[in-house]
Write a structure and sequence with these properties.
By secondary structure, this protein is α+β, with helices and mostly antiparallel strands. The chain is 33% helix and 22% strand. The strands form two sheets. Strands 4-3-2-6-5-1-11-12 form an eight-stranded mixed sheet. Strands 7-8-9-10-13 form a five-stranded mixed sheet. The site of N-hydroxy-L-asparagine has 13 residues, from strand 8.
């Protein structure tokens, strides 16, 4: 190629590089955080301590998740409901603005699985550590091994569950009346209204991150892992587009790579609520009868700070906090407790 033509072409290439698509440009933004369920409100407050000072979304979501894990008699963390064998096993994941991610599953006797997940992300070449290996990694990295005992509320709930030992995931559990509207959401029968906290945030520098922490479905089969620690199922972050998290029947979320799907719908131009609705419809349309008996909720935040949620059943809630709003919101759904 002639030298002049080559130079012309390469300067054209350089100017094209300068014209990055708008989503890729990192511009200052107003920080915002959204978290699943009503107790996401307190989680957001903890995360806001980081976001309001110009801190990183990654630190904010970890802070929020740690607060949740610290609650005794809670639906998340070591005080949560155990598996069928009476052992609490925890799942968690975290993902940052560079698509770095880390996760732990079936982790026992460690108080802050979200921070172990972050260490997996930062200190290993891996994404997911499970069971004994995850616990060993946690201990090697300074996490304390906690005693293996159930919290008073989990002990009560487990004893009650043992009376029938019925293995059926409780789906419309949100329908039950809360006797304690402040977190933890302890229900009349001693159970909790959910088992999972999903959090996604956008910080002042325009970076997005997310975290999920859960005890998984109460009285699950030993060794069962749901969507929560699975990147693309319980959590997905794409810093060019947005982030999403989920709660509910993990198996259904895994089947459709739920949060990855939500983010891909946002990439196609749908707003967060519509993106969540389309993912919910993917579950419902395949088997509407089955879907009548299960709950899945998706929550999404896009790069512009817009948020939205959608659920299979009535009852899914989320909390939002930014510089100018702080609220708990319900969302649209397909079924009103199994009825169209
Ligand atoms: C799981 N998705 O283990 C979790 C359960 C959940 O509110 O979200 N509960 O499948």
């Amino acid at each position: 190629m002639e030298r002049r033509k080559f130079l012309q072409l390469s300067s054209f290439g350089a100017s094209m590089l300068a014209l990055k698509p708008p989503g890729i440009v990192k511009a200052p933004t107003n920080p915002i955080i959204v978290s699943t369920w009503a107790d996401g409100k307190r989680v957001n407050e903890e995360a806001w301590k980081v976001l309001s000072k110009g801190g990183r979304a990654l630190d904010a979501v970890e802070n929020g998740a740690r607060w949740m894990e610290d609650q005794i008699n809670c639906c998340v963390g070591l005080g949560a409901n155990p598996d069928r064998d009476g052992i609490v096993t925890l799942d968690s994941c975290i993902m940052d603005e560079h698509a770095n991610c880390g996760a732990v599953a079936a982790l026992e006797r460690i108080k802050h699985p979200v921070s172990v997940a972050r260490k997996v992300m930062e200190l290993t070449p891996h994404v997911l550590l499970v069971g004994q290996g995850a616990q060993q990694f946690a201990i090697e990295n300074g996490f304390k091994l906690e005693p293996q005992e159930l919290s008073p509320s989990a002990k009560d709930a487990y004893e009650k569950w043992l009376e029938k030992s019925e293995y059926k995931p409780e789906i419309n559990i949100e329908n039950k009346k809360s006797i304690n509207p402040a977190p933890p959401m302890l229900l009349e029968d001693g159970s909790f209204n959910h088992d999972t906290m999903g959090i996604v945030a956008l910080d002042a520098s325009g970076s997005m991150s997310g975290a999920v922490t859960t005890s998984g479905m109460g009285f699950k089969m030993r060794g069962r892992v749901g969507d929560s620690p699975i990147i693309g199922a319980g959590l997905f972050v794409d810093n060019e587009i947005g982030a999403a998290t989920s709660s509910g029947m993990g198996e259904e979320v895994i089947r459709i790579c739920g949060t990855h799907l939500v983010v891909e719908f946002m990439r196609q131009g749908y707003n967060p609520e519509t993106a969540c609705r389309l993912a919910v419809e993917r579950i419902v349309n395949r088997d509407p009868e089955k879907a009548k008996g299960l709950q899945v909720g998706f929550l999404a935040l896009d790069k512009r700070g817009r948020y939205g949620a959608y659920a299979v059943q009535k009852g899914f809630e989320f909390a939002v906090k930014s510089g100018n709003e702080e609220k708990i919101l319900g969302c649209k759904y397909v079924y009103d407790y199994g009825v169209t």
